[in-house]
Sequence to fold (478 residues):
Amino acid sequence: MALTTHPPRAPLWRSTVGKKAAMAVSGLVLLAYLVAHMLGNLKIFFGAGELNGYAAWLRTIGRPFLGHEWFLWMARTVLLAAVLVHGTAAYQLSRRDLAARPTGYRHTRARASYATRTMRWGGVILGLFIVWHILDLTTLTVNSRAEQGHPYQNVVASFHTWYSGWIYCLAMLALGLHIRHGFWSAAQTLGLNSQHGNPRRDRVLKLAANALALLLTAGFLSVPIAVMTGAVK
Amino acid sequence: MNLTLRIWRQSGPDQPGGLTAYQVTGISEEMSFLEMLDTLNEELILRGDQPVAFDHDCREGICGACGMVINGQAHGPERTTTCQLHMRHFSDGDTIDVEPWRSAAFPVVKDLVVDRSAFDRIIGSGGYITAPTGSAPDAHAVPVPKEAADLAFEHAECIGCGACVAACPNGSAMLFTAAKVVHLNVLPQGAPERRGRVRSMVAAMDAEGFGGCTNTGECATACPKGIGLNAIGTLNREFLRGGRR
Ligand code: HEM
Ligand code: SF4
Ligand code: FES
Fold:
């Protein structure tokens, strides 16, 4: 006789734990992209020819199997999907979290780290930044004096306005904080951090999160700072 | 010691509530926080007022009934239960704010008493075996590795007090559920149904309206039994691993 057992697995997206896992995976996809992007940006220090040549090469990846810019569009599709999954999960979970604590306490003592407490607003800042950034350096809509196919000159032109450099610097600091909590949190969410009685793994993950955050922030920041100080012109 | 208490008074689940100030005098340092509240209640009764309702049972830190938020901290300034919190941690002239656990899944019943039966329903969804397998086996019939026994015991220490939910900015029950999952899943006796158990308990947890986990860590800081944040990592892994059982 078959007895009642546990129900079958429901779609992951339907549970808080599954939704958080989707957020962790999409976040890690974006993070991997950012590491590559940051390293690519550093080519600006080798001159206009290097960066522009690199950007032109990005459009030829996979030739002749893939056509012109096909790889780029595939990458853009994956990134857009990742941003949408990440943002939707964040929005839905945040709504739920706020509803689960309808009344606050008299004393609000912040004990969690600054990075932990700013994940939601930091995420919003990064979302807005991505829109700005695409309008600035991809579509060139808000970048006057910019020209398709000349990313070096376009970056320099952008950071010669008084506001653009500051927008980038603010966003990169938000990015560092987001990754500082986000990377470790993703490991915890995906159950990589469950080694009981092994605090070393936890420490290694936290260290890796800090290192990644620092490297990405410093690497990305170096470009606007170099332009604003005149080291790259 | 003489103290000013500002205590959340609410006459029923759907009634409005608010903080009411009381003076208590002659409090000794050896008193527990609950004995201090007893002193107040005796006075209130003599005056013909309603005593402050609060939950308590064992008064020795093992039943988990006595939850309340003291000056914004679940169970107060020490990492222990309210019944084991002594007044020596306060000073003469202090003003102390006392509020109930705040969570949509723990509605206030009266004053400081909340309904924590959501926890019982999480346990009920997975803290059992689905098929009767005869009478209990002899204690040592199934060998349990020492590591597993220790891990299970550490997590079985959870007393279901709800401080984790009260402390979490998302009102999440992940630490409680994780403690139960680790406790039951690491033992060989619990292993055959480990995946299904996690599925059921997470579904029950979500259905009660608890928030999700943002790995903030307030829960583990507040837990009087020292359940660690890594337990949540284990819960996540057990949940994501899939399988049909
Ligand atoms: C200050 C730091 C940054 C600089 C100087 C920079 C520069 C650039 C440049 C020049 C491009 C265009 C590349 C091309 O058309 O060949 C680009 C594309 C892109 N960047 Fe950044 N970037 C920075 C930071 C970031 C950050 C932090 C993010 C993510 C949050 C980001 C996301 C993107 C995306 C998604 C694209 C691709 C847009 C597309 O082509 O569809 N960037 N970036
Ligand atoms: S995990 Fe800790 S804080 Fe949460 S219910 Fe169990 S004993 Fe209480
Ligand atoms: S009254 Fe039992 S734990 Fe406090």
Observations:
- The helical segments of chain A are 16-41, 48-58, 70-100, 114-117, 119-138, 151-159, 164-189, 199-228.
- The mean pLDDT of chain A is 92.
- Residues B 56-59, 61-66, 81-83 surround FE2/S2 (inorganic) cluster (ligand 3) (CB under 6 Å).
